[in-house]
Amino acid sequence: MMTDIIADSLTRIRNAAQRRLDVTTLLHSNNIEAIVSILVDKGYLESFKVKELEGNKKTIKVVLKYDENGTSVINEMKKISKPGRRVHQGKDAIRTFKNGYGTLVVSTSQGVLPNDEAFKRGIGGEVICSIW
């Protein structure tokens, strides 16, 4: 049984990028969909599509993004907050990541947001993952 679906999704994206696959499939949850949407908006992934399966189940089909040399746009993806150790930060601590070259994905009271949007709204939250 899988206990951390977010870590599984990040690992699937990371492994697909290392193998230079065009597409990978993730299990669906609303949090995963929000995280993938942020990664598409920030330019780390090309696109995604939610597919409905039989039995009221869903998957997310993710198209990965590569530069003109064929290397992945994603340098590093890391899960920050884990089931055994939750990491929360205030709005001032999530202002920038990697001097603006990276993104923190933060779960806030207003939904899952990138760190720059959470800082603009003046809220902190649980830091889910980092990507650059």
Q: In words, what does this structure look like?
A:
With 132 residues, the chain is α+β, with helices and mostly antiparallel strands. The chain has one domain: Dna Ligase, domain 1. It has 3 helices and 8 strands; from the N terminus they run αβαββββββαβ. The strands form 2 sheets. Strands 4, 5, 6, 7 and 8 form a 5-stranded antiparallel beta sheet that branches. Strands 1-3-2 form a 3-stranded antiparallel beta sheet. The radius of gyration is 15 Å and the shape is globular. The mean pLDDT is 92.
Task: Work out the helicity level.
Answer: 25-40%
Q: Mind telling me the C-alpha Rg?
A: 15 Å
> What is the mean predicted local confidence, pLDDT?
92
CATH class: Alpha Beta
Distance between the termini: 30 Å
Broad structural category: alpha+beta
The domain count comes to 1
Shape: globular
In terms of per-residue confidence, which ranges show pLDDT below 50 for 5 or more consecutive residues?
Answer: none
Largest sheet: 5 strands, antiparallel
